[in-house]
Specification:
Layout lengths: L2 E6 L5 E5 L7 E3 L6 E5 L40
Antiparallel strand pairs: 1-2, 1-4, 3-4
This protein binds zinc ion (ZN).
Length: 79
């Protein structure tokens, strides 16, 4: 069962509450019995969004060097 973090709307007490995943995001403050709402913690990993997208997907980056076989012109200096 996941543990959710709540913050009381009245006294701003923060507490954790085990709840089912599909439970309503409402809990009662253990201190003042006020309505507390679920605090969604963002994932601590922050992507600063630079160079993360790899759009430069070059498949077979090696340029195909077309081997142009120059036909042998048969330069024969026949004396
Ligand atoms: Zn409270």
């Amino acid at each position: 069962m996941p543990i959710y973090e709540y913050e009381c709307g009245l006294c701003h007490l923060q507490f954790e509450r085990k709840q089912r995943f599909d439970a309503e995001p409402v809990a009662l403050c253990p201190k003042c019995q006020g309505k507390a709402r679920r605090v969604l913690r963002s994932v601590p990993v922050i992507f600063k969004g630079s160079g993360f997208y790899i759009t430069d997907n070059r498949k077979g980056g090696a340029v195909e060097k077309a081997e142009k076989k120059t036909p042998d012109k048969g330069k024969r200096e026949e004396k």
